[in-house]
C-alpha cells in the first residue's frame, strides 16, 4: 500500500521570527508515515457498510499552506496550526458500499505545540467526493449566508484524523448531506 506521499506534498513558509517549524521541508517530514489506504465500516439499519479509501496526492508546490500561530487561552502555551489542500491523482477513489467515487483533492488541517523540540500532534484529512470548483476550499461555503448560497459546498466527504506523535489512526467520520457517521477502522496501509 502506498504511504509517505503526503510528505512531498506539504510545505510552508512560516516567517515566524523563531526557529520552530521554520524549515519548509520540516513540516513535510511529519507526514511521511501517514497511510494513503484505509478501510472502514459503519452500521446502518439495513446492515454494515464498508468504505475503502485510496488517495495519491500530486506533488504540487503551486501554493503554500497557511499557518496560524496563537497562544492557547487555557494552557497559555504557544500553538501552531496549518491548513493546506492538495490535488489528487486520478487513481484516488472512495468506495462506499457498491458505489465508487473519484477524488480530486484533500484538504488538510494540523497542529500542535509551537516549540522546536515538540512535534506536531495531529492532522485531519478532509476528502470530498464532489468539490464543485476544484479549489478544495472546504465543506462549508465561505459565501454563506449570501443570497441563494448553500451552507455546504461538499455533499459527501470523509474526515480522517491521524496522531502524528504516535503515528496512528485516531478516528474517521463520513458526512453525507449534513449527516455524519462515525466509522470503525478495518485496516490501514503501512
Structure description:
This protein has one domain (6-188). The chain has helices at residues 6-9, 24-29; strands at residues 37-44, 47-54, 66-71, 78-87, 93-96, 99-102, 105-113, 120-128, 156-163, 168-176, 179-188. The protein has an eleven-stranded antiparallel sheet with strand order 3-4-7-8-9-10-11-1-2-5-6, with no helix packed on it. It is globular. The protein is 5% helix and 45% strand. It is built from two helices and eleven strands. The longest helix is centred in the N-terminal third of the chain and has 6 residues, at 24-29. By secondary structure, it is mainly beta.
Gyration radius from CA atoms, angstroms: 17 Å
Helix content: under 10%
Average residue-wise pLDDT: 75
Alpha-beta classification: mainly beta
The major β-sheet equals: 11 strands, antiparallel
Distance between the termini: 7 Å
Please give the domain count.
1
Strand order of the largest sheet: 3-4-7-8-9-10-11-1-2-5-6
Q: In DSSP terms, counting alpha (H) and pi (I) runs of 4 or more, how many helices?
A: 2
State which percent range the strand residues make up: 35-45%
Shape: globular
**SSE sequence, one letter per element:** HHEEEEEEEEEEE
Unreliable stretches covering 5 or more consecutive residues: 1-25
Query: How many strand segments?
Result: 11
